[in-house]
Hints:
- By secondary structure, the chain is an alpha+beta fold.
- It is 32% helix and 23% strand.
- The protein is built from three helices and four strands.
- The strands form two sheets. The chain has a two-stranded antiparallel ribbon.
- Strand 2 (38-43) and strand 3 form a beta hairpin.
- The protein starts with a helix and ends in a 34-residue tail after the last helix.
Amino acid sequence: xxxxVDAAIRAEANARLTATAPAGFxxxxxxxxxxxxxxxxxxxxxxxxxxxGTGQWVAVVxxxxxxxxxxxxxxxxxxxxxxILSAVPGLQGHxxxxxxxxxxxxxxxxxxxIEIRVDD
Length: 120
C-alpha cells in the first residue's frame, strides 16, 4: 500500500539522517520532503525504487552556550549586540527586542536578565 511505503521511506530517511547529524545539530524530521519514487527495476513481483529528498539539520543550543552568549551581550549597545550575534557560527539571522519599550536600546548589564530564544 502506498501509505505504508511512504511511512517506511520516511522512517528510514529519518533514522539515517538523525544518525549522521553533525556535532551540535539535530535532524528536524518535520522538514523532510520526498520526491516521487523512481522505478529502478522490476522483476516479477519485486520492484526496486529510488527516492530522493531533502531535510534540514537544526543547531542545538545548550544552556551553557546561551549563558555564555548572554554574558557576552550583557551591557552592550545595539550595534555591539548585532556584531556579537552576527559572529555566532551557524546563526542564520537574529532579532533584538528590548522590553519594556521605555527602556533604553541596550542590553541589561546583568546576563541573567537577557533571554535568548532559538527558532527552529
